[in-house]
User: Which sequence fits this backbone?
């Protein structure tokens, strides 16, 4: 059945009707192409957002403060609310029971010097738990210890970018750098995705407070919610929020002055959006497939009709019904398979060509789910086979003379 | 250039397994064949009890007025159509209740068809059309092409081997069709008005070819309207309204002057 003779015969009929070959190919190829590109877009969006989230552990609550927008208890708006060490201490000791936490303070555009090299990098003061809260993959040396904070040591952990830009070929660990003119020792380095991630210089929060501004100010606080569920983390958010508003006299409706953000909740929201997007892609994909299948079925029906007299002739010349059926079915399968594969290649190529132009914070790696695409291809090929088989069966079942007389 | 047929039929009987022994009835033997076409609100009887014997090597014309059932009879003989009742033995084998696959085998090995409208496959060249029946006999491609080329040569058509049917004249198409019918060395050629679409000169050339085919021992059965075509056959059968009203040597069969000539038994 699948011998060379049959293939030659199929090649013959396929090339003999270029228009219908092109039409079948188009309906299948276009279907797969659209499916692949849609999928790529969906995955690109998802990858982008997930990568953005990948920077932080999901079970964290971020606490930030800003300026007030509403008057409250006799205090005017536009007042800056500043967290301090005492806030952090109170919140972690009395308000919530977080398994890990860290204060965070940032100095953008600080001057970092090494030997004769110099560059501007953000310096971030954090506490020992921070590497778990922000998921910083250490690539060499060590992370900041509790001891570093207690002793206010002048040590730092630097991002990968500094290795290339500042240290070049020198060993970074153990090297001395100047941070805004003050000498620190590098104890570790890390690698991380994202625009800023790899340019950070992490120092102990206590050291930063002592050396750079002589204050007890904290810009942000990160709290781990441990294995709390969404309900638990929401309760934690509420408690921290209420405490800060109380202590700093902030109006309950003031959105800017106190901002407590639950990563878990945000991620859950994005998950819901993704489910929506995925559903959308599936529906579009489903319709594309359906359209492709209907297209193939239509064309095959016409093809078989057009070839009814030919079927009669072949029978008169000694063809069995089986040989005619297999000819048409194999032809339909090869047509859909080849054009589907071409659509797949074109779709993947389009994504690969377009991807570099479409890089965005919320859009990366528009990859193709090969399993889904292959499934779609198989569905179309099966649809092609069936839509070839059904009318062909009808055509070979009638007596040869009826096929010969067909108009 | 006239056709130069050198068809091998000697030993053909020996190559047919089982059924090649002597039999009393003809190679094609019909008895009491009846056939009706189903119509909306009833059925139209077309063959009303046909008894017919045709021996190996005969050249038979089937005549009769339009609608008398000539094509229907030929299609029954060619296993292209079924019948309702009666018996049909082909080479001593009962054809009633033949499976589709067996029928295909008989069509492939025993029978060759020539149609009024040629029925060449439009996207295949003359050579490929002629070679096609051998595809269904599982003959290798190269062998198929060699034999098809040879057969086209015998029809004086080898210089048109690569032409598509649309690039051939009517007579050339019919020669290709005859070559295609002959390629499997059938025992019977069934031709339904093979000259119906051709002018008289071309018709005579085609008849010449068919006579030479018959001269090699192949049974030829031709449906025709034209008396001079029938005259070139050995035997003429006349149908009227689904029954055979005359059967005899060509030339001896007289034109029916009135319907009263119909035989009743
Ligand atoms: N498929 C069919 N369905 C219904 N009736 C049919 C069918 N084929 C033929 N007939 C009828 O059967 C009768 C005999 O038809 P047939 O084709 O055998 O005639 P014919 O002798 O070959 O005529 P012609 O010389 O015109 O070709 C006609 O009345 C025709 O209308
Ligand atoms: Mg007829």
Assistant:
């Amino acid at each position: 059945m699948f011998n060379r003779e049959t293939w030659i015969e199929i090649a013959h009929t396929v090339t003999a009707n270029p228009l219908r070959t092109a039409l079948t190919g188009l309906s299948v190829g276009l279907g797969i192409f659209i499916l692949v590109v849609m999928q790529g877009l969906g995955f690109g969006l998802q990858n982008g957002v997930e990568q953005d989230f990948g920077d932080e552990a999901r079970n964290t609550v971020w606490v930030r403060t800003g300026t007030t927008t509403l008057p409250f208890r006799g205090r005017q708006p536009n007042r800056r609310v500043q967290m301090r060490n005492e806030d952090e201490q109170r919140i972690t000791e009395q308000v919530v029971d977080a398994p890990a936490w860290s204060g965070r303070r940032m100095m953008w555009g600080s001057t970092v010097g090494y030997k004769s090299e110099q560059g501007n990098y953000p310096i971030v003061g954090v506490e020992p738990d921070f590497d778990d809260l922000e998921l910083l993959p250490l690539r060499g040396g060590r992370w900041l210890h509790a001891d570093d904070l207690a002793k206010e040591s002048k040590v730092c952990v630097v991002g990968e970018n500094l290795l290339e830009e500042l240290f070049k070929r020198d060993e970074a660990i153990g090297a001395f750098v100047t941070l805004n003119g003050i000498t620190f020792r590098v104890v570790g380095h890390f690698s991380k995705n994202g625009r800023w991630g790899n340019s950070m210089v992490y120092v102990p929060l206590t050291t930063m407070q002592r050396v750079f501004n002589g204050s007890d100010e904290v810009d942000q606080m990160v709290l781990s919610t441990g294995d709390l569920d969404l309900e638990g983390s929401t309760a934690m958010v509420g408690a921290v929020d209420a405490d800060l508003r109380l202590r700093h006299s902030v109006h309950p409706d003031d959105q800017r002055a106190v901002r407590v953000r639950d990563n878990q909740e945000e991620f859950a929201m994005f998950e819901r959006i993704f489910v929506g997007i995925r559903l959308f892609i599936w529906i579009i994909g489903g319709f594309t497939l359906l359209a492709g299948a209907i297209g193939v079925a239509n064309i095959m029906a016409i093809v078989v009709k057009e070839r009814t007299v030919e079927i009669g002739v072949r029978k008169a010349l000694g063809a069995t019904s089986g040989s005619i059926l297999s000819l048409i079915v194999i032809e339909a399968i090869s047509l859909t398979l080849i054009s589907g594969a071409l659509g797949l290649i074109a779709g993947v190529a389009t994504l690969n060509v377009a991807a570099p132009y479409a890089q965005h914070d919320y859009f990366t790696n528009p990859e193709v789910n090969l399993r889904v695409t292959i499934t779609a291809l198989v569905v179309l090929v099966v649809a092609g086979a069936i839509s070839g088989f059904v009318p062909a069966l009808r055509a070979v079942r009638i007596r040869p003379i009826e096929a010969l007389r067909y108009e | 250039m006239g056709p130069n047929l050198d068809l091998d039929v000697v030993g053909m009987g020996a190559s047919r397994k089982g059924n090649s022994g002597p039999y009393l009835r003809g190679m094609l033997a019909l008895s009491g064949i009846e056939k009706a076409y189903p119509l909306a609100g009833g059925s139209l009887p077309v063959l009303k009890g046909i008894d017919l014997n045709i021996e190996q090597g005969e050249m038979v014309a089937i005549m009769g007025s339009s609608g008398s059932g000539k094509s229907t009879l030929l299609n029954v003989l060619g296993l292209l159509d079924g019948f309702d009742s009666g018996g049909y033995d082909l080479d001593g084998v009962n054809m009633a209740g033949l499976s589709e696959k067996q029928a295909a085998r008989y069509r492939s090995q025993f029978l060759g068809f020539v149609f009024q409208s040629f029925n060449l496959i439009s996207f295949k060249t003359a050579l490929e059309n002629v070679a096609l029946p051998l595809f269904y006999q599982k003959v290798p491609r190269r062998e198929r092409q060699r034999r098809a080329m040879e057969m086209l040569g015998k029809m004086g058509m080898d210089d048109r081997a690569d032409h598509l049917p649309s690039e051939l004249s009517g007579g050339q198409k019919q020669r290709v069709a005859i070559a295609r019918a002959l390629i499997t060395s059938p025992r019977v050629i069934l031709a339904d008005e093979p000259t119906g679409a051709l002018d008289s000169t071309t018709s005579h050339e085609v008849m010449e070819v068919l006579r030479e085919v018959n001269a090699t021992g192949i049974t030829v059965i031709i449906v025709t309207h034209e008396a001079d075509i029938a005259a070139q056959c050995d035997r003429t059968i006349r149908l009227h309204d689904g029954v055979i009203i005359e059967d005899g040597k060509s030339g001896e069969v007289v034109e029916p002057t009135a319907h009263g000539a119909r035989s009743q038994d």
